[in-house]
UniProtKB/TrEMBL annotation:
Keywords: DNA-binding, Transcription, Transcription regulation
Record carries keyword Transmembrane helix: no
CDD domains: WHTH_GntR
Protein name: GntR family transcriptional regulator
Organism: Labrys neptuniae
InterPro entries listed in its UniProt record: GntR_C, TF_FadR/GntR_C, Tscrpt_reg_HTH_GntR, WH-like_DNA-bd_sf, WH_DNA-bd_sf
Domain of life: Bacteria
SUPFAM superfamilies: GntR ligand-binding domain-like (SSF48008), Winged helix' DNA-binding domain (SSF46785)
């Protein structure tokens, strides 16, 4: 874990250059968010905006705009007359976010196990054609696939999840589990994290309720640092077992088992986080 101090050189940040997808502010936002979630910018660390501008090769405006967005996400604090720093993790907020996820996602898998969904499944894990021999797909490719507008265009009217639709969901989840297994074996923590997100999004896409998905995604934004913080080999192995239990219950159509497996999966994050916080209190705001 890096020391809490200003990293004036910010050598871990790659200059943006003149080309790239999205506007400058969006690109700066993505770079800084990833640095915070990945703990290259540690909780409580002061941020030198000018040094970041110089390192990324951008003006102050997009950096200031990106930091304002990160403040709204709870990842940074902008202190008048004192500067900007990375927010420490607040356990109370994590508990609330996990409460929302637990309630919605357990009900989502219960509903899917009972055989209902609002829209058909069109979600396929990217990179299957390349095979596992070429490694886990990079973050940019996976991120783009998650937000692909072509998937939304495939949604249809409300209908029961059955036949080919159920098979498609199970095939997508099982394919995702194979990628998770490969990432775990390769020690690819970041790749596993992205595949973990993909697993949960696949379930929400299958359910097809846009407001439920939006609520879960909003709650999850506050948990990304925590999930990365706990991404030890042991935690990754347990997460994979939890995901396999969820898929097994869905395959069997066992609604109670599916909901219980999801609840146990999300509860384990809080249990591990409380233990971690006791050992690393400087990273947390409310201990």
């Amino acid at each position: 874990m890096p020391d809490v101090a200003v990293k004036a050189s910010y050598a871990f940040l790659e200059p943006l250059g003149l080309t790239g997808r999205g506007g400058t502010t969006e690109r700066v936002l993505a770079v800084l968010r990833e640095a915070i979630i990945g703990f290259e910018l540690a909780p409580g660390e002061d941020i030198d905006k000018l040094a970041i501008c110089e390192r990324l090769g951008v003006s102050r405006f997009p950096v200031s705009e990106a930091l304002a967005r990160l403040q709204s996400e709870g990842l940074v604090e902008i202190l008048p007359q004192r500067g900007t720093r990375v927010s420490r993790i607040r356990l109370a907020e994590v508990r609330q976010s996990m409460f929302i996820r637990r309630a919605l996602e357990s009900q989502a898998v219960r509903t899917l196990a009972l055989g209902y969904r609002a829209t058909p499944v069109g979600h396929v894990i990217p990179g299957e054609a390349e095979g596992l021999g070429k490694g886990i797909q990079g973050p940019k490719e996976i991120t783009c696939a998650l937000g692909s507008p072509s998937l939304a265009a495939k949604s249809k009217a409300h209908a029961p999840l059955a036949g080919n639709d159920k098979d498609a969901l199970l095939q997508s989840l099982e394919r995702n589990l194979r990628y998770q297994q490969a990432a775990a074996q390769a020690g690819d923590r970041r790749g596993f994290h992205l595949l973990d997100l993909e697993f949960h999004l696949t379930l929400l896409d299958a359910l097809g309720f846009a407001r439920v998905k939006a609520a879960v995604e909003a709650a999850r934004a506050n948990l990304d640092r925590v999930r990365r913080l706990l991404s030890s080999p042991r935690h990754i192995a347990l997460t994979l077992v939890d995901h396999q239990a969820i898929v097994t219950a869905l395959r069997a159509g066992d609604a109670d088992a599916a909901a219980s497996a999801m609840e146990a999966h999300l509860d384990s994050v809080i249990t591990e986080l409380v233990a971690f916080a006791a050992e690393n209190p400087t990273l947390f705001e409310d201990l």
